[in-house]
Structure formats: structure tokens, C-alpha cells
From TrEMBL:
GO terms for molecular function: DNA binding. Gene3D superfamilies: lambda repressor-like DNA-binding domains (1.10.260.40). It comes from Amycolatopsis saalfeldensis. InterPro entries: Cro/C1-type_HTH, Lambda_DNA-bd_dom_sf. Residues 24-44 are annotated as: Disordered. Signal peptide: none annotated. This is HTH cro/C1-type domain-containing protein. Residues 57-91 form the HTH cro/C1-type domain. It comes from the Bacteria.
Length: 153
């Protein structure tokens, strides 16, 4: 871990909410018509129930997201990880989940950036310890670009 970015312990709820905020529904025909920006608690609950063979409600997923229920069964964690196409270790290993979060944020930023080709070339030689610095730089660039769109003067 980069010394300027010490490992931060992140709750299960924080990690789960990060996935809801970051992993967007695929653009299949059903979702394209709904134009959803994120998955619903109900979608995840149905996937958990299908994966585990046990009932799961959208209320339970909501409790996991709020932290009201903080210790789900391993099978539930595996089902949620599977739904979001993440390894289950994302929820258990803080160092690994922090690195994954940084990589996902960077990928999200790059998907929205005109500088994507240049940055992708440079990333081939990037030290993994520099990912947090690059991510923060790209966030700052995105904020500047967004403010220019909102206030074109």
C-alpha cells in the first residue's frame, strides 16, 4: 500500500454500497429500456436467493447496505460477490478491497475521459502504488470538467 494512502478498514456496508454505486447494469434489452443507473436491492435479493436456494428479501439487502445487519452468512457474501462479478475476498480482505475499489474508480473515470488512450498507454508502466495518486488526479480533472459543463462561462 502506498504510504500516502494507508489502509483503511471499510465496513461490509461501505463495500457493498461501493459496488451498487460503481457496478452498473449491463446494457441488455430489458435494462436499456429502464435506463437504470444502478442495481436495485430487489435484483440483488433475487440473485442471492437463486444462488443460495434460501429466501432473501430486498429489506435484508437494505439492512446490509445500511449496516443494520453487518454479518451475513458466507453463502450470502459469495452470492453478492457473484452478482457483482467480484471475488468474495473483496468483502474480507481490506487491503485487497481497497486496491479493487481504486482500480474500479480509475476504470470508471477513464471510461469518461478524453485522455483515455494516453493514460492507458502510461498505465502499462505504472507502479501499482501510484494508482491512488492517479485516481485522485483523474477525480480532480473530472470535477473541473463537470463544473465547466454546469457553468459554461
Amino acid at each position: 500500500m502506498h504510504p500516502a494512502h494507508p489502509q483503511v478498514k471499510t465496513s461490509f456496508a461501505d463495500k457493498l454500497n461501493f459496488l451498487f454505486d460503481t457496478v452498473k447494469p449491463k446494457n441488455d434489452d430489458d435494462r436499456k429500456h429502464r435506463r437504470k443507473s444502478q442495481h436495485s436491492n430487489d435484483e440483488v435479493a433475487k440473485a442471492v436467493a437463486a444462488y443460495t436456494g434460501e429466501p432473501c428479501s430486498h429489506n435484508y439487502i437494505g439492512k446490509l447496505r445500511s449496516g443494520a445487519s453487518a454479518e451475513p452468512k458466507i453463502a450470502v457474501v459469495e452470492a453478492i460477490a457473484d452478482f457483482f462479478e467480484m471475488p468474495p475476498a473483496y468483502f474480507f480482505d481490506d487491503a485487497r478491497s481497497q486496491a479493487m475499489m481504486e482500480q474500479m474508480e480509475l476504470a470508471t473515470i477513464l471510461a469518461d475521459s478524453d485522455a483515455r488512450a494516453l493514460v492507458l498507454r502510461e498505465l502499462q508502466e505504472l507502479d501499482p502504488a501510484d494508482v491512488p495518486v492517479i485516481t485522485e488526479t483523474m477525480r480532480a480533472l473530472r470535477r473541473v470538467r463537470q463544473s465547466k459543463k454546469e457553468d459554461p462561462q
